[in-house]
Design brief:
The structure is a homodimer.
Chain A lengths: L3 E8 L2 E14 L2 E6 L5 E2 L6 H4 L1 H5 L2 H4 L4 H7 L7 H13 L17 H9 L12 H14 L11 H14 L6 E3 L5 E3 L1 E2 H12 L5 H15 L1 H4 L5 H8 L5 E5 L3 E6 L4 E7 L4 H14 L8 H8 L1 E3 L5 E7 L6
Antiparallel strand pairs in A: 1-2, 1-12, 2-3, 2-10, 4-7, 5-6, 8-9, 9-10, 11-12
Chain lengths: 328, 328
């Protein structure tokens, strides 16, 4: 099945660009709605961080380390390296008696404008705490302390990654056909879009067992601390706030977005074929509108989807639209 | 005709993302090769700046103002707002007895790292000279001085834009079906991809008439001053240098790229359906390799196309590839 037409960009009364993609909505029984190919195998990238965090809770490592919900939200984050994130990772590492050099995520400049400016103008370089995945890695280190593994915790054969893989395969209900190495050096296992949406549906309607309790706590952490999951001005944070914390959402690199809808017991997963973030952000908004969990008048809708596109002088030059049939 | 599969991103032995698009190679007689739909109507955006600059020369305005080839290259530029570009626009405006406020392109932060940092860390805001299109607009103002038009030179009905439209329709050989307003507020006329590639073929093999002379001078200016057309580290500059100035290339927003090949008498035009710059840059490299005007061992090939993708720790995580059949 081919990718579906998802998001269009218009200029001068003409469609200028088009994003194709795949999207699936699941409940606990399976696929409810799909656009494109629900069986498309993708790398979830950072969209599955709440899955990768399951062993942290299920093993007892989180409780042993006394992790707060704010820290659990950070473990599920792709944050923008603002002061609140960097400081939280720093304190977390200190409580583990570890340091920045124990991380294995690598360094990049933070997207947070203030922290970026501070580093740029003081001639400082970012360190691994600024990496958008540093919270996930602090979680990995916490689990590692509990499991007693070696320092190279991003090795696919390492007990931390084996635990993450097992959880991933169980909640997606699939044997992963393989993994890629993510931007932060951790393995990222592939699954079908249906598998990813099913996993999100499980998070939306967790059972009463140990796994269910872990899912419930992670979703609650994300919904309660949206600022820790991404940062000011970022889609995940803005969108969770716009829905008053009723829905948890998470972006992933190369055009992935997922949503967990506890009240409806639904999970969403989507992938823009071309990997564009502007497409995945617009598409998740379209699906949340479709499911009536986001108010069409909420400012976030015009920010990421319907709002006019303006040029450097403020002139309206075009607009984004959902393609005909996405969603109906 | 559907868009063709053009550029793929691979990770972990699996195709992670895919860019579709349309591409056409023309000579003076018409289409030689095409991928996707050669009749696709697109907005050329900044890729047609050398077309928009034709009236500047043909009217005699450029000679009357004593413009240098360096200035003509800047008139065809999407520059990164480095000091050399901002200073050149500033001096150009001064010779016209005009100032920054006479520009109508709007302000945005420059992409040049040094100038960006200078502004950021000194709490200065960018002005219109930093706009990547300020050279084109200095050209518009020069033509306007010659034509005696009013100050709102970006109005589609203004003599400057009427002259640009006439030149555009003549060199594309098409009646434009309409225009959009570009990021810099100037009208941008739509044409087919074949029309755009044909225009580039005309630039590649210009006649001896006034238009031909103008084309020849603009192409020579771009080839001789690649640093003025974009800037250090930018694809257009790097690519023209990599081909020792034998080929002129120009990018346009939303995934457009064109090339002018004087030795072969060929023109290329391509558009990534999704508007991605990474796709248009990789695709133009693929076509230049296909036409044997770019050495496959040139570093630019790995930078923009074949080179491994590395993560924040330097680990190879994937690669870009041309899709099967693009080009053969």
């Amino acid at each position: 099945m081919r990718a579906a037409e998802m998001i269009e960009l218009w200029r001068g009364g003409r469609r200028e660009s088009l994003h194709l993609g795949h999207a699936v909505i699941c409940d606990s029984t399976g696929v409810l709605e799909a656009w494109g190919n629900p069986s498309e195998v993708i790398f979830p990238r950072s969209s599955c961080k709440m899955v990768q965090a399951l062993p942290l809770l299920e093993s007892g490592a989180a409780d042993a380390a006394g992790l707060t919900d704010r820290q659990l939200a950070l473990a599920c984050a792709s944050h923008n390296g603002a002061h609140i994130h960097v400081e939280a990772v720093d304190r977390w590492l200190t409580t583990l008696d570890l340091q920045e050099t124990d991380l294995r995520c690598g360094c990049h400049m933070p997207k947070d404008p203030d922290e970026n400016r501070r580093l740029t103008c003081s001639d400082h370089k970012p360190d691994q705490r600024h990496n958008n995945c540093s919270g996930k890695h602090a979680g990995f280190l916490t689990l590692n302390r509990h499991l007693g593994g070696g320092p190279e915790y991003v090795d696919p054969e390492h007990p931390v990654q084996q635990a993450a893989k097992a959880a991933f395969e169980e909640v997606t209900g699939e044997t992963s056909p393989g993994y890629g190495i993510d931007g932060c050096s951790a393995p990222n296992h592939a699954c079908s879009l249906t598998g990813l949406a099913s996993a999100m549906a499980r998070f939306a309607k967790p059972g009463g067992d140990r796994r269910g309790q872990a899912m419930q706590r992670l979703v609650a952490a994300m919904r309660t601390h949206p600022e820790m999951v991404a940062g000011e001005g970022r889609a995940c944070t803005t969108l969770m706030r716009a829905m008053q914390g009723k829905v948890a959402v998470k972006t992933g690199a190369e055009g992935v977005f997922v949503a967990i809808l506890p009240e409806q017991g639904l999970g969403i997963a989507l992938k823009a074929l071309d990997g564009a973030t502007r497409a995945s952000e617009a598409a998740i908004i379209a699906l949340l509108l479709h499911l009536d969990v986001l108010d069409k008048d909420n400012p976030v809708v015009s920010t990421y989807l319907t709002g006019p596109i303006r040029n450097w002088r403020g002139t309206v030059t075009g607009e984004m639209r959902t393609a005909p049939g996405f969603p109906d």
